[in-house]
Amino acid sequence: GIVAGTSITAVAMTEPGTGSDLSGIATKAVRDGDHYVLDGSKTFITNGINADLVIVAVRTGGHAHRGLSLIVVERGTPGFERGRKLAKVGLHAQDTAELTFAGARVPAANLLGGEGSGFTQLTANLTQERLSVAVGAVAAAATALDRTIDHVRTRTAFGAPIGALQHTRFQIAELATEIDIAQQYVDRCVTEHNQGMLGPVDAAKAKWWTTEMQWRVLDACVQLHGGMGYMTEHPIARAWADARVQRIYAGTTEIMKDLIGRSMKLG
């Protein structure tokens, strides 16, 4: 169903009391014959409302990382409830929800992989995930700049296009340069990833730098659009709101910097 596009999936990791630190996951799955019984809650789950299959990170053992497992919970499972659809600043077309599990009985066959393999499974593709966020960040920034260039060419002030103002030219030049430099680094990362050579540190560098760059570009583009840029009916305003979460999900900017810093063995 996933391959055919008939099943929508979600991955439920984040909990009210834990985010980037997977060792803090508290949702439990206790084996009971041919089933697991799940108890706990999740939040900020993408596709939480619409998902047919939810891959839930649960604790099946006491060790921080080796005690984590993944269990697939199907729509309609007794004890599995979807909470409210969360109201987000941006990305309004994408549903994000709270999920609760209260004695939810799931067949033991729904264990994904083996018990205790959850941490490895969740982190195995983090490098690719962070690279994909970086690719999207550069593309979104470039699109926003293209829209803004069209705007400053046609918007006039004091009898001339605002693009003719030196300040506007300087700002557009800065934004274009940042995007081009980011594109070169991301292209290199994509090439290395396709060769199986991209490491987590370089992916972290790409993720935090491009998403922060995306935010700077979008904020400047809103400013160059003036009042029109603050209207939600305008694409630049929606892109600005959508961009804010890029610096948070797939690992916050601060987590990325910490990962990079630790790799340098500074102390």
Descriptive account of the structure:
The structure is a single chain. This protein is α+β, with helices and mostly antiparallel strands and 267 residues long. The protein has helices spanning 118-123, 126-154, 166-194, 200-225, 235-243, 253-263; strands at 9-12, 28-32, 35-46, 53-59, 68-74, 80-85, 96-107, 111-112, 156-157, 160-161. The strands form three sheets. The protein has a four-stranded mixed β-sheet. Strands 2-3-7-6 form a four-stranded antiparallel β-sheet, with no helix packed on it. Helix 3 (166-194) packs antiparallel against helix 4. The chain is elongated.
SSE map:
Blueprint: E1 9-12, E2 28-32, E3 35-46, E4 53-59, E5 68-74, E6 80-85, E7 96-107, E8 111-112, H1 118-123, H2 126-154, E9 156-157, E10 160-161, H3 166-194, H4 200-225, H5 235-243, H6 253-263
Parallel strand pairs: 1-4
Antiparallel strand pairs: 2-3, 3-7, 4-5, 5-8, 6-7, 9-10
Secondary structure category: alpha+beta
Run of helices and strands: EEEEEEEEHHEEHHHH
Number of helices: 6
Question: How do the strands line up in the largest sheet?
Answer: 1-4-5-8
Cα-to-Cα separation, first versus last residue: 49 Å
C-alpha Rg, in Å?
22 Å
The largest sheet is: 4 strands, mixed
Percentage of residues in strands: 15-25%
The share of residues in helices is 40-55%
Global mean pLDDT = 96
- Which runs of at least 5 residues are low in confidence (pLDDT < 50)? none
Shape: elongated
What is the number of beta strands?
Answer: 10
Brief overview, please?
By secondary structure, the protein is an alpha+beta fold. 41% of the residues lie in helices and 22% in strands.
